[in-house]
Specification:
single chain; 213 residues; alpha+beta; 3-stranded antiparallel beta sheet; 5 strands; elongated
Length: 213
């Protein structure tokens, strides 16, 4: 029996066209899910927390926000936060990821006066300038005096003493007489500054941080 190649080709073309249509429909469905456009009939409303959806253009961040809202509701806490970052300066680098930190634990730092102790420890312009200098690069005491505009090495040691006691700065194990910020404390200093940046942001409100006394 002679084969009808023309008919077979037409049949293959029809099958290819059908497959192409199915792939196109599947692609549209995937894109719909990727952009958060699909309906979620099974999603139950939260009891205590308003679920924030599509809060950020980055889909990953929006999904993380939804997870934090859900977790906050499930645990019955005041909130959950996630933060991450990288800081590279002076030949060293710090990377950090803190996921699902309970805000109840953070508020407890005020109640047990830990926050007060930390802020008192670093709460002077000279000490903050020392931290800033050492965040930029490792330094000797003489270099700290010059960089921070201090009067003497004695004045530098006076301000470095509480920072050393709190383990915020340390002497470099590989370079005697050279001081650095404790590597695993870098993130705390950077995140504290990030919080200060939020507090002084006047996008939605106005205020003054000058003393009224």
């Amino acid at each position: 029996m002679e084969r009808n190649y023309g008919a077979e080709i037409d049949m293959l073309n029809a099958e290819i066209s059908s497959l192409r249509k199915e792939l196109q429909e599947l692609g549209e469905l995937v894109r719909s899910f990727a952009h958060g456009q699909s309906k979620q009939p099974d999603a139950k409303p939260l009891k205590r927390v308003h679920q924030m959806r599509n809060m950020h253009p980055d889909k990953r961040l929006s999904e993380k926000m939804e997870e934090l809202c859900t977790l906050t509701d499930e645990k019955g806490v005041t909130g959950m936060i996630t933060y991450l970052g990288v800081y590279a300066s002076g030949g060293s680098q710090s990377n950090w990821i803190r996921n699902e930190v309970c805000t109840d634990d953070l508020l407890a730092l005020i109640e047990n006066r830990t926050a007060e102790k930390v802020l008192n420890c670093i709460g002077s312009n000279d000490r903050l300038n020392i931290l800033l200098a050492l965040l930029k690069k490792p330094m000797t005491v003489a270099e700290i005096v010059s960089e921070c505009g201090l009067n003497s090495t004695g004045q530098a040691y006076h301000h470095m003493k509480p920072l050393l006691a709190a383990d915020l700065i340390i002497e470099d194990a590989n370079s005697k007489g050279v001081y650095v910020v404790q590597p695993h404390k870098v993130q705390g200093i950077i995140m504290l500054l990030a919080g200060i940046c939020d507090m002084v942001d006047e996008t939605y409100s106005k205020g003054t941080w000058d003393s009224n006394e």
